[in-house]
Amino acid sequence: MSDKWVYDFSEGSKDMRELLGGKGANVAEMTRVLGADRVPAGFTITTEACVAYMKADQTEPEGMADEVAEALERLQEHTGKRLGDDDDPLLVSVRSGARESMPGMLDTVLNLGMNDRSVEGLAKATENDRFAWDSYRRFLQMFGNVSRGIDGEAFEQAIADVKADRGVEEDTDLDTDALKALVDRFKALYKEHTDEEFPQDPQEQLRLAIRAVFDSWTGDRAKEYRRINRIPDDWGTAVNVQQMVFGNKGDTSGSGVAFSRDEVTGAPEPSGDFLPNAQGEDVVSGARTPRDIAEMKEWLPDAYEQLMDILKTLEQHYGDMQDTEFTVEEGQLYMLQTRDAKRPAQAAVRFARDAVDEGLLEREQALMTVDAEMLTALLVKTFDPGANYEVIATGVPAAPGGAKGEVVFTARDAIDAAAEGRDVVLVRPDTNANDVGGFHAAKGILTSLGGKASHAALVARGMGVPCVTAASELKINLEDKCIRVGERTIGEGDFIAINGTNGEVTLDDVPLVDPTEDPAFDEILKAFETVLGWADDVRRLGVRTNADTPADARKARELGAEGIGLCRTEHMFMAEDRQPKMRRMIMSGTRDARKEALAELLPLQQEDFEGLFEAMKGLPVTIRLLDPPLHEFLPNLPDLAAHVERARIEVSADLDELETLLETTERISEENPMLGTRGCRLGILYPEIYEMQVHAIMRAAKAMDEPPHPEIMIPLVDYEHEIELMRELVVRIGDEEGLHEIEDYTVGTMIELPRACFVADRIAKFADFFSFGTNDLTQTALGFSRDDVESKFVPVYMERKIIERSPFETIDKPGVGWLVRLAAWVGRESRPDLKLGICGEHGGDPDSIEFFHMAGLDYVSCSPFRVPIARVAAAQAAIIHANDRSWADA
Amino acid sequence: MSDKWVYDFSEGSKDMRELLGGKGANVAEMTRVLGADRVPAGFTITTEACVAYMKADQTEPEGMADEVAEALERLQEHTGKRLGDDDDPLLVSVRSGARESMPGMLDTVLNLGMNDRSVEGLAKATENDRFAWDSYRRFLQMFGNVSRGIDGEAFEQAIADVKADRGVEEDTDLDTDALKALVDRFKALYKEHTDEEFPQDPQEQLRLAIRAVFDSWTGDRAKEYRRINRIPDDWGTAVNVQQMVFGNKGDTSGSGVAFSRDEVTGAPEPSGDFLPNAQGEDVVSGARTPRDIAEMKEWLPDAYEQLMDILKTLEQHYGDMQDTEFTVEEGQLYMLQTRDAKRPAQAAVRFARDAVDEGLLEREQALMTVDAEMLTALLVKTFDPGANYEVIATGVPAAPGGAKGEVVFTARDAIDAAAEGRDVVLVRPDTNANDVGGFHAAKGILTSLGGKASHAALVARGMGVPCVTAASELKINLEDKCIRVGERTIGEGDFIAINGTNGEVTLDDVPLVDPTEDPAFDEILKAFETVLGWADDVRRLGVRTNADTPADARKARELGAEGIGLCRTEHMFMAEDRQPKMRRMIMSGTRDARKEALAELLPLQQEDFEGLFEAMKGLPVTIRLLDPPLHEFLPNLPDLAAHVERARIEVSADLDELETLLETTERISEENPMLGTRGCRLGILYPEIYEMQVHAIMRAAKAMDEPPHPEIMIPLVDYEHEIELMRELVVRIGDEEGLHEIEDYTVGTMIELPRACFVADRIAKFADFFSFGTNDLTQTALGFSRDDVESKFVPVYMERKIIERSPFETIDKPGVGWLVRLAAWVGRESRPDLKLGICGEHGGDPDSIEFFHMAGLDYVSCSPFRVPIARVAAAQAAIIHANDRSWADA
């Protein structure tokens, strides 16, 4: 701990956040860059002073008072104004500023320095009596409440009394006289509650205000906030004392906001709004219509030129687009705030490209300014940002983009509607593999259950279909084909629109905008291509796609995928012409009968693979053998039970058949199918299934002109002997088909169970590659059933700060991440040339991609529409960790 | 690799298993202990010779032939007999002997040395022409088949021809002449197939036989066996050449088996059977009735005395009860085999106690002779070992003991029958928490699904109720209340008996024996108590019990439990008077309504805890707050769906109510409840439930005279913040009730998710203890749903040697064990006084207990009836690892 308790803004910098708090460090940095005249001056009392104060039972540390007095003196000298002056008084704000923002939790006092004399000075300086007296009464109110704990109600009551006296309704109707009367009442209130006179001495005001801010750190609200947000109690808060400037001091004053470039398109011209003779809140409140920043040039040409220079300076200093607030006080331009500008995807790629062209940034720096997560927006239609609409429900934004159309409740109806050219939104409580056909046909998907990683979300995201899940306000009744939400009922064919970017659902016909239809978009697309090209140069991670169909595969290749990291073969059995065959196979009681049923599926599977190989033109294609439990191909059990009950009562002709189906479904159904008879367990129990699939892969490979690179993946391995047996099976079929391991195909495994990570060295002896199935690894390592928990306790857990994000969105590093690193490590120890990839949903999540880069993986695989995100995120990971010694090398 | 290829038996020992194979090492050890005259002499050709032979393309290594010739010469000198002698010829056996036993896979040749001359010598020596010629023809057959690959069919055909010639039916009807004719035919067969004469030279016979044994190592059958059993191909087999001795050489010859003590009771007198003038196979074949070993004293007093001495010597040498085979050849006693005797529990404890009393063993050595797993047999009735019965089905022996009675299909029926004093066996496809009432009422439990760790198995074992699970031959139809098995149908009220010790099911009224009714059992019980007392002195691990009722708790204390390691509070809500209240709570839409329903459960819970505290008399009681997903308290969904469908068709009066129930059940049901909304997730979503339970615990504690030690356990923690929040809840209620943490109660967590193990250091900051829930940890780490997989692929996995035992029976060390060790380690790093226990089913499994000892845990907790097992197993672990440096100290 240092002995210095107070820092002038000109002494600090953005690196002193712990000592000066976030606000203090930021204003100091801006002062450093722009000079002391451009930023309202002031000083910061350190967090250490607060800590010392708390430790000493609410006593200021020795020397602090003197340092504050000296800093105040310097402030008065610098501004040429004095606190309490009756001509043009110095007023200051006294604000808290903790290391982490705690919005609204700590106290603030504005207009400090007001007293019976300076109120007159302010009136003179602003030529606005009412403003001066209103400021005074506001200061009295805030000061009394904050520093002496006088109940806000008492002040409100006094205001109400005066309004009643004067017969007016609104605060704004109180004239200067009324405000003067209120000032008297407030002073009386202060006396009454504190037994002291309101301190006219601004030094005394300042001392009390600083104590009040310190004290607010240990207030109940703040403590509760810190507990919930897990901010340590012993950090303390800094206190910032800053000159107040006024944009409402007449025609040469004003306030505004300015961006260093167009914040919507990214075009290289500053943009923004300003209002003459106004304070900052007037610009954003909407009470007056602000004017375009360009018009400021005529009104205050000097200040305008200065502002333009400052924007350039700030952009260069921070190396990014800036979003600023400023005030002009009697011709003098003050910068109040600057921060990196939030921007939509098009502005992000445009800025990145231009910044390099302009020599502002190096390519790698420019790449770091892009928020990879947002890039999908460049590929889909979205709600018109200017549209107004009534939100009837909000769910989880599961796949970005806007969609609208008639409500349908079944995949079948969606397909029929699409055939008739109608736009539909498929609405279901949740979805399963049977619904996938409907995903292609629908414009959007809406579910009341699930979450960001539920089946609907995964599939929709992979297809680029907008999707909202977990819209739990919607009560969806499939039987009656209606949705109830509050008092409303929405039926089949009714209009609905969903915004997959923010999770909103509306019944209004919101206009959709297609970014590619915008003529300006040509420039954006060029910039996008340029930035992606740089990303490819920089990244070490490969980027593949998860794709089950040739259409998905082609789309992904267009977007830059370097192979297929996961083809889920089960999706191929869900098609309408195949499901009966699949079901017949499952219902077979003997191996021979199963083989017969499988023989019919073989040529169809072969076609599937030929389509994929064709689409990928010799790039690697990882094919996972059948993974899901077989009952996924059978009807839903409760529905079937009800159906059979009805058939029994009605003595239906097909009762026998139905009862057999029910019996099989009951026998095959499992308590916890996620942990049941699936993955390679099926391959071991029913080798004929995997044999058929491997034959289909081999034959498809032989049918290609350009030899493909099939990578055959065995799912759900726990024990090395499982992969050993399954590898034997594959190689045996390979021999039969005349193809050779390594040369013509490779065999690997999905690592998706914790046990597999512990014995990865043994498993690697039989695997040419590992692909981490982080979805299932998350389910097992955390004991979270994805479909069950996303809509149930995950939202509550986020609210209570138990978790920050769903572990299905961003990889859980301490648990799942640990397992991935362990398996990567011991797997490579055992087999140094082991190829490592990841094909869970995390493969498209930027934070997770950074982790996979660090873990030394070779590639990530993600949904087609997330391929650009992954390319950029992989580049960013490589840039951030360029100088790290890789953990994998260690 | 050494240069010595051949070892005489007198040169080897039991430690040379790798070089001499199992059989060679054992016979050498016996020779060493008893001297060269007591064991038929011989020599072993090493496994290394076999390896060299294989490497050199079926060529004997240099020097081997000479060493064999020398060894044979020594053998002939030692025995005073010569191969091929026409007086009293030496005959030898040539047997394989691999490092691991491969029963039936490798070749053996007996009676080697037979030829046209020595057959006469053997006839003379045994005064038995027929025996000599039969031995000759058997040798020809075996030698021709084994060493020259002549098809066995050809020999069988020749036998059939001779029988037809002579007009006899059986092999045994062939007289000496017929056998002589057969010898001629066999020699002709040999010539025909090999183009060579049958070798009359015994040296040549020996050379060919040794090659044949070597070659059998690389035969297809053996290779397949090794692949399945994962025995390395490059181990090779040894070859043992041993003098054959004959117990059928007249009145001073004979064969027998002898135990060093009574193998059934453990009483300290040798027991066994013998037959004069007979070979070993005659004793065990049952063709002649053997005589008690005591009678041998009169017949061959010298040999008898020698045998008694030898039994003592062997017992002392091996430090355990011995099970031996012997032959007397013309008055000379030969010991053929000795091994540690298999014995039932009563003999095991009796021997252990007596061996110490006699000074044969130290206490710790004696403890090591007891098979802990078997001890439960001392506590339950069993099928009479002598009973004959027809087995109609065999399942998994899930809880030991025999039970019989009328078949009932529901818990309700079991309870009603018990009230009427009828004995019943509860038969169901599987069971769930709703059936627990019926477990108490039934004599035994039989299920067609599940496995050794299914719900039925766990609960039955905990209660000491015999149980057979996974009897998959039984088709149980609950609707028609019948069991179909093959052609039979068994209905309600029909008689059934089950043997939970070996998994057999029968319809016969098998007598049950209660060991405690045996007057001799008094002695056994005393020995049992003594042995358990020694175990308690030696073990470091504490032993607690899993118990949910005062009755279980009392039983466990009687059996030595030192506390309750797991009380599952949910079982308390399954009782008939409580389930409606629980259901009302779940159906409540608001927190207040839930609180109201819970208020009714509070006094009942308090009573539950008072009962437990009372039973445990101040010993620690670990109480787990509600863990299972709430839908476990609601009806089965498919059944309910069918029920509602019926109600709809019939327009039942209670349709509305049923539909509401269906809606709630559907909403609450989960795809994978194991990974769903349960454990502390419930506590966070519905804190009022845990609040009620904690109030009940605290109030019960206050109501006790003797202060109890409640340990409140939070289940299913993943994140440190979960336990932090739940600890806060407990302490808050504690404050309300005026009780203090640590002093009056402690708070800990169940470690049952992989993630929790990785962050155990953080979790430990809020936990006074960890209890490993290894059942759920196995389910998640391996992705094995216990109820689903035990009956489905686990048996197939065992058959295919992917796993040796169910991971729910014995802890999976590489996966689950790793997690336990990690969590124990980092948990203690963070909190050195952290108490560590384990309360999964593994807590009662001896192998797992050894692991937990090594992992540094403080205690194991198991079902009441397994407490004695755990006490002994814990002692054995401490003995085995007495000199290990503990991993936890490292």
Automatic annotation (TrEMBL), chains A, B:
Record NCBIfam families:
PRK05878.1, pyru_phos_dikin
PROSITE patterns, per the entry? PEP_ENZYMES_2
* Enzyme class (EC, first level): transferase
The organism is Solirubrobacter deserti
User: Which intervals hold domain Pyruvate phosphate dikinase AMP/ATP-binding?
Assistant: 64-293, 304-350
Q: What does the record give as EC number?
A: 2.7.9.1
- Cofactors demanded by this protein: Mg(2+)
Q: Where is the PEP-utilising enzyme C-terminal domain?
A: 527-877
Query: Ranges for the PEP-utilising enzyme mobile domain?
Result: 423-503
What name does this protein carry? Pyruvate, phosphate dikinase
Can you tell me which family this protein belongs to?
Belongs to the PEP-utilizing enzyme family.
SUPFAM superfamilies tied to this protein: Glutathione synthetase ATP-binding domain-like, Phosphoenolpyruvate/pyruvate domain, Phosphohistidine domain
Gene (name only): ppdK
